[in-house]
Design brief:
mainly alpha
Length: about 80
């Protein structure tokens, strides 16, 4: 895996699991995303990282909501 981050591994697991839940092959999802199935395979295995645009297309195709932000401060002290 190219990126060793546990967070990225969790994201990939979610994306692949969602594809499986939809009953889609890599070829089907790749068609919906607009990329070749070999490219999707490389993304799913962590061998390459998609561009920001490709990542957004990937999550949109799976009907997943992408939320960006910074961690919120949980402290209630003033």
């Amino acid at each position: 895996m190219l990126l060793k981050s546990s967070m990225w591994h969790e994201v990939l697991t979610l994306l692949v699991s969602t594809r499986h839940l939809r009953g889609w092959s890599q070829e089907e999802l790749a068609h919906r995303v607009g990329y070749h199935s070999n490219t999707l395979r490389l993304w799913e295995t962590g061998k390459t990282i998609p561009s920001a645009l490709a990542f957004m297309l990937w999550t949109n195709a799976l009907n997943l909501q992408l939320r960006l932000g910074t961690p919120q401060n949980k402290s209630t002290a003033d």
